[in-house]
Design goal:
Layout: E1 2-5, E2 10-13, H1 25-44, E3 49-52, H2 57-79, H3 84-93, H4 103-110, E4 111-117, H5 123-136, E5 139-144, H6 146-160, H7 173-201, E6 209-210, H8 216-221, H9 242-256, H10 261-266, H11 284-288, H12 292-303, H13 309-317, H14 324-340, H15 342-345, H16 376-388, H17 403-409
Parallel strand pairs: 3-4, 3-6, 4-5
Antiparallel strand pairs: 1-2
């Protein structure tokens, strides 16, 4: 189309019409966080990314997002007429004549993955991590950190004269949790050491940005060790739920054709921080007391619909087919853990924000972060409702004078 400009008396052509296209969630995860990582990397002038690759679906998702970034860069170099992307890549890699043509080759230059195993790690997670690293093309290393953990415990035993044990070996719950946490925190410290020095050890220059891999559901519930591999410089999946990550991984299988992805899809999520015995294997959902799908529903109702414990219970009673008492216990469990672990949400790694129900943004939210984990008024109303056998059949939108808000004002 041609239009006339009265002020200048000239004719100008309109730009061609572009049909809008809305990406499904799995494509948004593929392109959005990848673009975010690339923008941060080129602005920070760092040399790439470092990721603790555990063999689970969360860290695998982060690795696949970086792979998507490399695919997008190679495509952009081919399409970029002013060569800005090419100049950025040559600056980051410190290779003035380098032109990326293969995403896997570029990945090896920008991306380091590391499996940090312990005596509680399984061969399955180790092999899954290595297989995915090969498919993507990362520079992958395998490190056993048992000696680091034993050195720290030796200092404690020397000072106190006591040696903590896992619950499976006769220890208490306090001992069991401390032994899990020291493994997780040792990974964070080791990861940062390698991120700063791995390029130097390879005869290259520059240091790497550390990527963390905790999803939004775990961050909301506090199901993570403070200052473990959930701590990093950037978290591409910090506002993405587990169910969307599963769809994203399946999308990557179709898009990239990596055969290693099958192992992640079928794997049961586990932290692998406790010894495996004949009668016990640690799993995430058993530890949390909630499934990831349940956390997804709870997270959306809490943040988007602004429901506290009582109205959360009433809303879920219309959504979940579950005995009232069991439903009440799940709602209480979530809000107790949510309140107790609020301190963790104040130090979550900066994330790519793409969900309305992500953990509160502590950079702008200046409300007190500590809640009463007893939730006396709300939990009492849940119990009374269960006893009376009165369940909400239809949704009633909570107002500013609901039980939840009145209790919070008290």
């Amino acid at each position: 189309a041609v239009v006339s400009t009265q002020s200048t008396g000239t004719e100008e052509s309109l730009t061609p019409y572009i049909e809008p296209r809305y990406h499904p969630p799995e494509e948004e995860i593929c392109y959005g966080p990848a673009s975010w990582l690339w923008d941060y990397l080129r602005r920070s002038k760092m040399s790439g990314f470092f990721l603790p690759l555990s063999g689970g679906i969360d860290s695998a998702s982060v690795a696949l997002i970086v792979s998507s970034m490399c695919h997008m860069i190679v495509y952009a170099v081919e399409q970029d007429q002013d060569n800005q992307v090419l100049r950025d890549i040559r600056s980051l890699t410190r290779l003035p004549n380098y032109t990326p043509t293969d995403p896997a080759e570029l990945c090896e230059k920008l991306f380091v993955t590391c499996y940090m195993g312990t005596e509680n790690s399984s061969g399955e997670t180790q092999s899954r991590a290595a297989a995915l690293a090969r498919d993507i093309g990362t520079y992958h290393i395998n490190v056993n950190i048992d000696s680091i953990i034993q050195s720290i415990l030796a200092v404690f035993s020397l000072f106190t004269g006591k040696t903590p044990k896992f619950k499976a070996h006769g220890g208490s719950q306090v001992e069991n949790m401390a032994l899990q946490n020291i493994q997780a925190r040792a990974r964070m410290v080791t990861g940062y050491l390698f991120a700063q020095l791995i390029n130097w050890s390879r005869g290259k220059t520059g240091s790497l940005l550390v990527l963390s891999s905790s999803n939004v559901d775990e961050s909301l519930l506090g199901y993570m060790t403070k200052y473990d591999c959930s701590s990093g410089d950037l978290n591409p999946i910090g506002s993405i739920c587990k169910s969307d990550l599963r769809h994203f991984v399946l999308h990557c299988k179709e898009m990239f054709g990596f055969p290693s992805i099958d192992g992640f899809i079928s794997a049961v999520p586990t932290a692998e921080l406790e010894p495996i015995t004949e009668n016990y294997t640690q799993t995430d959902e058993e530890d949390m007391g909630l499934t990831y799908d349940e956390l997804n529903d709870i997270g959306r109702i809490r943040k988007i619909d602004r429901c506290g414990p009582f109205f959360m219970y009433k809303r879920l009673s219309c959504m979940w087919e579950m005995p009232p008492k069991e439903l009440g216990e799940k709602v209480k469990l979530f809000f107790q853990k949510y309140a107790i672990n609020r301190h963790k949400s104040c130090v979550v790694t900066p994330a790519y924000l793409c969900e309305q129900y992500s953990p509160d943004d502590n950079r702008y939210d200046l409300r007190p972060f500590l809640y009463n984990p007893k939730w006396d008024v709300q939990f009492r109303e849940i119990d009374n409702t269960i006893k009376c056998g009165v369940l909400a059949k239809q949704h009633t939108a909570p107002s500013t004078t609901t039980i939840d808000t009145l209790a919070m004002k008290k």
